[in-house]
Amino acid sequence: MRHVFLIPICVIGALSLSGCQHAGEAEVERAVQDVISGDESSLNDIMMTVADPNEAVTYFRRNLEKQPDRITFQRGLARSLIRAKRNTEAATAWARVAEHPEATNEDRVDHADALIRVGEWAKAEAVLDAIPPTYEAYQRYRLEAMVADANKEWSRADSFYETAAGLTTKPSGVYNNWGYSKLTRGDFKGAERLFTEAITYDPSLFTAKNNLVLARGAQRNYDLPVVQMTPTERAQLYHTLALAAIKQGDVGIGKGLLQDAIDTHPQHFEPAVRALRALEARG
């Protein structure tokens, strides 16, 4: 009787072991897929951020040939084209992403950004208008402000710039754009205040320093602002002030500022030298 029961027990044991082996293989397979998926996600992130932009474009296009409907690859291609400054292609790529069933509001904002880069302001405005007002994000309001600026809707632009500045911890770019908007409207005092604010948040932002000098020069204030600057930047800012002075008929002051630019620059400053010679030749 002992032998009669031995066979069923052995069979049951074998079946149990087989079941454990299959379960273990499935878990291993899932773990492998998780690793592959994680590696792919990491590689995609690298390609979209620090890899050479044109190499990233090739990478995502190659993957899209195999999986044309994967929004991850579509999005990666669109972002890589922006990084490569291939804006016309990027606008087309972002349109494709925005039409995908899995597209997000962030994708639609990026589509609007790509359209602005190629001068399609009306299309960009339509894309932004279609995004629910409940979606509140820095990039969305920054673009809304730029569109309002393009339409010369100044009150709306100011409102959007203010909202955008409040939604980021690095608002220097917003304040610089807002200041430039004020500069183009002729509100030089307002522009000066906003450029100063931009530099407060990012002392290295030379564009804001140069714009600040333009705003001051437009008010015939030809003194350099008290901001952090390198000797090269100081020379370039003197040059900007000189051109502003000459444009407004203050030629004598302009000559002096050009000489300051030449004397301050740590190397030969050809544009300033050329401008000063041209003025002196005219008497």
Summary of the model, kept short:
With 283 residues, the protein is mainly α.
Describe this structure in words.
The chain has 14 helices and no strands. It has a domain at 50-118: Serine Threonine Protein Phosphatase 5, Tetratricopeptide repeat. 78% of the residues lie in helices and 0% in strands. It is mainly alpha-helical and 283 residues long.
Which features does this protein show?
283 residues, TPR_rpt, Serine Threonine Protein Phosphatase 5, Tetratricopeptide repeat, mainly alpha, signal, TPR repeat, 14 helices, 78% helix, TPR-like_helical_dom_sf, elongated, Flp pilus assembly protein TadD
Q: What is the N-to-C order of secondary-structure elements (H for helix, E for strand)?
A: HHHHHHHHHHHHHH
pLDDT averaged residue by residue: 88
Characterize the main sheet: none
Low-pLDDT stretches are 1-21, 28-38
CATH-defined superfamily of one domain = Tetratricopeptide repeat domain
Residue share in helix: over 70%
CATH top level class name of one domain:
Mainly Alpha
Query: Within the CATH hierarchy, at the fold level, what is the topology of one domain?
Result: Serine Threonine Protein Phosphatase 5, Tetratricopeptide repeat
Multimerization state: single chain
Our measurement of the CA-to-CA distance between the termini, rounded to an integer number of angstroms, reads 126 Å
Number of helices: 14
CATH architecture of one domain: Alpha Horseshoe
**Count of individual beta strands:** 0
